Amino acid sequence: xxxxxxxxxxxxxAPAVAEDLECKPSHFKENPxxxxxxxxxxxxxxxxxxxxxxREHNITPEYIAELLQDNVANKRVSRKVDQLLLPLLCGxxxxxxxxxxxxxxxxxxxxxxxxxxxxxxYSWLGSIFYFAYLVAExxxxxxxxxxxxxxxxxxxxxxxxxxxxxxxxxNSFAGFAALRFFLGIFESVVTPAFMMIVSMWYLSSQQPARxxxxxxxxxxxxxxxxxxxxxxxxxxxxxxxxxxxxxCGGMTVLWAILLFFRLPNNIMTAKSFTTEEKALLIARAxxxxxxxYNRKIKLPQVWEAMKDSQVWVLFFFVLLNEIINGGxxxxxxxxxxxxxxxxxxxxxxxxxxxxxxxxxxxFTGPFLASRLPNARTYVMAxxxxxxxxxxxxxxxLPRTNLGGCLAGxxxxxxxxxxx
Length: 419
Fold this sequence. Notes:
CATH architecture of the largest domain: Up-down Bundle
CATH class of the largest domain: Mainly Alpha
Helix content: over 70%
Radius of gyration: 24 Å
Largest sheet: none
Low-confidence stretches: 1-47
Order of helices and strands: HHHHHHHHHHHHHHHHHHHH
Number of strands: 0
Structural class: mainly alpha
Strand content: under 5%
Number of helices: 20
Shape: globular
CATH topology of the largest domain: Growth Hormone, Chain: A
């Protein structure tokens, strides 16, 4: 059981509690919570903040081991984490996707006619977002690691929502380009921050399914955006693309305020959990061997990752997949508009099934990866095949072949599973 400070005051081994959860493979072969003999002052400075939390509350490895064996407590804390985090992560992913796609929805309606933007300039607007994303992703991840992650994500979310609202004030390519660049900067925090959050709060066996759940909201965003903006398309007295940006930006700003107050920064400071529940969450995270919350970048670990051949295989896998993603994100709806005979309302309707298809594929991929042992790479390769087929159909079929082109468009959405 957990012991009091007075009980441990004279115990020479008490300081060793902090090192119990250091993620060293040799420790996990026997017991991830095994008591160590001693810890030096220099080591304390490099400890994961979760270990320091355990030291401060004098929580023993024996007590944590008891918690880990309590199946009821584990199920209860898993449900509690899901109820707190998943709505926030799913909502943020939903808004990130729909905000990013606002430009392509606008292009389907009256963006070109009211701003004078050309097709070549539109192509650059799609690219500049990802250039900014590429430049800003590492600094954003650095900020999320060194500062309270909940505050960082909510601040970024508020900023990109504000940029969406500011976009309605511009009518030139230069203004759009500048604002798209800043939109890419502020949306870049989502993926690295969510990776940190999921790895902190969930067991490794739970992570693919949870990531799949909030990634499904790319598809929910696509379907919902199609339904919402189909209604917007009937507007007659106001520029349609500006209505799209006002709706998207307004929802995001309001959501950012909710995130600021509800998204926890880490396990140790989460107000919704008791000390015992936090101890259990820390112990569960220790099993992942990735640490719980550490603000220091450890260069030996970076170098080790750089030498891992699997990292480079995944790097090029994602890089090539994202080439398809970039093209389809910017021009997919314009391709559908061409197939739909130039009708923006039909184009929006044809895009709705793609969102639901995306939900199905994005959910089933992580589900299979989490249920089939040592099969993640096989699932990735399997789900890449329809993407290749869909891309080929869009490339080769004439635009008069409505069914074939739409089938290819819906199949290409499997690329999202591989992200």
